[in-house]
Amino acid sequence: MSKLDERLRAELRRAAPEPQTQALFDGLAERHRRRRVARKIGTVALAVVVLAGTAVGFVALDRAFRGGPRPASGTPTNGSVIGVVRDSMRTSHLVLYPADGSASVNLTPPGLGTDADPAASPDGRFVAFAHAPVSIDDSPSTLRLLDLTTGETRDLMSGEIHDPSWSSDGAEILTAGMIIPSLQRYDALFAVAADGRTPPRQLPLDYAGTSLATAHPTWSPDGAGFAFENRTREGGGPGVFVADAETGAWDGTKIVSTNGDTPALPSWSPDGSWVAVVGDSIVGSGDPTHDIVLVSPQSSETRSAYGDVPVDQRPTVDSLGWSPDGTALVYSAADGKIYTMAIGGSPIEIGSGDEPTWLPAVDFTIQPQPEPSTTTTPEAGIDIGLNFRLCHVESMGGVDLLGDGTDGTVWTGARVAEDGTCPDAYDTPYVEALDHTGDGIADEFDRYSIPNCQGCRPFGTTDLNGDGHQELVLLLQGGSELQYLLMVADIREGGVWFGPVFVTDPGDPDWGFAPGRPFTFWAGGDENRSEAVECVDEAGSTTLLLTQGRGSPTYEAGQPTTIHETRLQLSAGGSHIFVVGVNEQSIPAGDPIPPTNQGPTCGGLDFNPWQ
Amino acid sequence: MDETTLRTFLRESYPRLVGAVGLVTGSAVSAEDAVQEAVLRAWQRSERGERIDSLDGWVLTVALNLSRSGLRRLRTERAARGRIARAERTEGPTGDRLDVQRALAALPHRQREAAVLRYFLDLSTAEIASAMGTSEGTVKSQLAKARGHLAAVLALDPDEENDHVEA
User: Fold this and answer.
1) B11, A21: Cβ pair inside 8 Å?
2) Angle at CA A407, nearest 5°, toward A404 and A411?
3) B38 close to B62: Cβ distance less than 8 angstroms
4) Rounded CA gap, B166 and A494, in Å?
5) For B116-150, b where at least 16 C-beta lie within 10 A, e where not — what string?
6) CA nearest A553 in B: which residue?
7) Rounded to an integer, what distance in angstroms lies between the CA atom of residue A460 and that of residue A547?
8) What is the CB neighbour count within 10 angstroms for residue A18?
9) Do B36 and A21 touch (CB under 8 A)?
């Protein structure tokens, strides 16, 4: 090493920033926990869709609140615990931890989806939980009901729902979900009839446009109110609030406010005396996830749920609930374990898992999930006629990209790895394949590689330039903002060319349409940005109108929102798309960000994720 | 990734990585954002059952990628999820520290990354190539250019310099 190298080392070390690491773990743990919730909340590809109609529809039909559930009579005996075990590949399933200490058994099949947030009914017969299919990470979750006496399931409500909890009489399930008014999205609370006979109804919670996320609702046992976790635009961090069930009124006062902490995960005790939350407390640990606090909703009295357990020996809690008899808590922690703990006692580990719920003792045999049969797969992936097999395949038929009347097919998928196995679905390039002859065998592939698939799949076809040749729309990634790619097929030099449409010079590069690049566009948004896709008829030609709204990325007060419109038209051959006009304006800070994604669709395709 | 692993990483590796990314980006706050985001992503991956052989290397690579691509979108998403934004630190660098940062800032991005990974993190050429996603030959040439530029700008004694760039 030369002296110059040594000098450079010394200079750089002197100049480097020195970050603070105090409480860093806890901050990251909190963010990690929030992110898990936020992922359920924030990566929705579809808005809440209720089996009996749209969310807006049933809200309009049934705004009047019918009163909460009635208190249960008698005190149940504690039984087994149900939790969530996470598999690889982003799937999870429900597991029963028997009260007798025997080995845990699966209640839902592993590897077939994401089963999360289980909540046991008061009589112990049913478990409500959030279920999402395995294929797409950002798929919206469904409120699913598992009958423990039969092992059968049925869906009560689809959409991005999470954190169900039961009314004390077992008649209704309170759950959080999402609705999207003008893209100012927020979570709402829904009461869902457990028997499925009446449509879900939105609880009259007045957000006044301030809410970012609502989670973990929990009924008061008498049904007069409900506690929930909420984050607001202005308030920033989360808080636990109580709202009146009749009016939805909540004055913004957190039921726990100790040392400026961030209490979370409320759970109302069966007798109504306490709301348990995770948060800082009278012990003043300064660590919001190292204590479980019981708060009296009547007197605001607080006490720690722990007995003589040193603060540094209390697990970092990420899910919390009560025992059926109200004498103990069950919770999971960042160490991946589930614990039970008598109030004023010490935690007792019952197994590995997450998001536990405690069943009452039942007098029937709980049906386990049959163990899957062990079958060997000789070759991974499927053969669609290419010289390699495809894994994680999504396909769409009825495609006619050449306009010759062929009933063709397109596929997206990942090439099988060199060792013959399927690669990780989320960390591998994807290819697109096309059957343009209608024989079900792929003829072309791989003109445009999707770096990694976050819900990518064939989305639909349209004909923007009206030439009779369909254009293929691929969904590149899901989430609150969906990204699409436009692809075409054409006869070139005697063969079929299959690839993306390219942006023609000069494009609109500052807004995502750089010349020479494949044409991709976005739809959706969040509370600070939005993208809308419409097709409008201008002078006899179809124009793709892409409207993008951008609030201040730093959320600075008073910063206006920029609204930018880009008008594009597809070339005659369909190989290129060119910008025919742009328009830009500002709107005052705080105004809802247009567009509302309610404009004309493109040949029947509606790119808006909030439908 | 268990709690012990993460706490050890935060105590022993996090400051070094933030320092390195901070030298590359010129912003301590952006560096912390990038490294923390990389840590969270590693955490999520480990929960999906994915194995990360070298947490330091993985976090460094991802954090540098994030700093290259910009964190605007990331910040927007994070703010949407209600995280309270930290205030940008008001104190700025002064004196010699400012000179070094200016010298680094004047380097092309790839040279700056190579120099920081070599002289701040003491990575080998192979490790730098892996973190930057480039070849060892490219790293050597970028390092040679960065070294000469830094020596000139910082007015280091040319007699101290030799022509050797260690591998």
Assistant:
1) yes
2) 115
3) yes
4) 54
5) bbbbbbebebebbbbbbeeeeebbbebbebbbbbb
6) B76
7) 21
8) 10
9) no
Q: Where in chain B is the domain with CATH 1.10.10.10?
A: 93-167
Task: For chains A and B, count residue pairs whose Cβ atoms are closer than 8 Å.
Answer: 155
The fold of B93-167 is Arc Repressor Mutant, subunit A (1.10.10)
Q: Give me the average pLDDT of each 10-residue run along chain A (611 residues).
A: 81 84 75 53 30 28 27 73 76 89 88 84 94 54 89 81 90 79 58 86 67 77 86 58 78 53 81 84 47 81 84 80 95 87 92 93 84 53 83 89 88 85 78 88 77 78 87 79 86 79 90 88 72 84 87 61 90 90 83 59 73 44
Residues in chain A with CB shorter than 8 Å from the CB of B38 are: none
Distance separating alpha carbons of residues A550 and A562, to the nearest angstrom: 5
Beta-carbon separation of A25 and B85 below 8 A? no
Distances (CA, A) of A2 to A6, A153, B157, B161, B166: 6, 70, 12, 6, 9
- Among A1, A3, A6, A8, pick the best mutation site for testing chain B contact (most B Cβ within 10 A): A8
- Interface probe for B, chosen from A1, A5, A527 (most Cβ of B below 10 Å), is A5
Q: Return d(Cα A586, Cα A589) in angstroms, integer.
A: 9
Cα-trace Rg, chain B: 17
For B5, the enclosing helix (H) or strand (E) is helix B3-12
Set out the domains of chain A in order of their start, with CATH numbers. 24-67+80-360 (2.120.10.30), 377-500 (no CATH), 503-611 (no CATH)
